[in-house]
Amino acid sequence: MTCHNCQSTCNRFGKHRNGLQRYRCSQCRKTFTEDHTRPLVGMRLPLDKAESILKLLVEGMSLRSIERVTGVHRDTIMSLLLLAGERSQQLMDTKMRNLSARYLQVDEIWTYVGKKRRNVRSGDSPELGDQWATKPKPS
Ligand SMILES: [Zn+2]
Known about the structure:
By secondary structure, this protein is mainly alpha-helical. The protein is built from five helices and three strands. The protein starts with 9 loop residues before the first strand and ends in a 6-residue tail after the last helix. It binds zinc ion.
């Protein structure tokens, strides 16, 4: 860890009451805490509440129902959903590489995807249309 003040190396200096590591600079003797990790970037939503909202979304609960149950505004829920989607994409892009799968099972999301297909319009991105077109019919 380098000092924010003089850029020299720092030693560990106990723990903060919230559990984060504290450091003290060996030159200027200033103390500071390690950077807080912010899993929800700029959102002020508590992590446990965000987790329960995502669980409700995965279970298929509607946006307004979640709003009523949790008391979190629907725009916040949508921001959380967008963030979770982007993070999932990042995770899958880094972890799922060079796979040679013969079969893919996507039963759980098929109803969602199938429902969305009806909403694809002629003016939408051709990528979107291809995505739906390559989907085999469930037997
Ligand atoms: Zn320093």
